[in-house]
Protein: fructose-bisphosphatase
Amino acid sequence: MNAALRSSGKVAAIASEEDDEAIWLGEGPFVVVFDPLDGSRNIDSSIPTGTIFGIYRRLPEADHLPLTEKAAINVLQRGERTVAAGYALYSSATVMCLSVGSGLYGFTLDHSIGEFVYSHHDIRIPERGQIYSLNDARYFDWPSGLQRYIDNIRQGNGQTRKKYSARYICSLVADLHRTVLYGGLAMNPRSHLQLVYEANPLSYLVEQGGGKATDGKRRILEINPIMLHQRLPLFLGSMADIAELVSYGDIQQVHNPGYEV
Ligand SMILES: O=P(O)(O)OC[C@H]1O[C@](O)(COP(=O)(O)O)[C@@H](O)[C@@H]1O
Structure:
């Protein structure tokens, strides 16, 4: 992926989840951040995985700095400066969802011609869903607001009075893609997902599809990244479902003891 971005001649700086530091490539107009393989812990069991990327413009104000510094500054842009983002999901079909700032669109790989075909026109995330997605083996480590919210939607005591179902693949792209199509919530309440490679591009896509993205307190796209591998809680999904969740206040899992699987 690094070699392809370098040879495009369009990319000034890149940062990959797999690398320790940002890399300066040249004088191109764009900056690309990416997680090449999200959900990698699932790969041996053939569970869906994904790729996530976000694109920014190069910051001309950093041009005078040494290479390592300007690479670092360019990849730490706020999510609201994103000019394009996307994810690819490798599953029963290979699907790529993209935005260039005017809505959310989906393309499906047609193996017979070796091309992506335009399959999902102007995707709108349903205002409400009936599915929640998170690792709920962590229930007893959650704060009380999150516990109460999940208890309520499980029992049909939330705002919609409907009983929600749970789905958790543990591959963020796959859990989000289902949420984009059917509505509901894709969540990780502990400080685990990465702002630069995961939260920002996916939040941009969710907002482009009419949904909402928060860390439980702040709109993701307004957060100033301060470190390349910065982690945070992440709540993505339907506008009304995320608003209801956030109204419980105390939803970020501060107690994060570390988990073996
Ligand atoms: O262990 P948890 O909290 O359920 O986290 C699972 C999440 O971690 C991820 O596997 C990403 O983690 P990595 O960045 O360590 O690969 C997501 O795809 C998934 O949603």
The first helix runs from residue 2 to 8. The first strand starts at residue 11 and ends at 16. The CA atoms of residues 41 and 171 lie 9 Å apart.
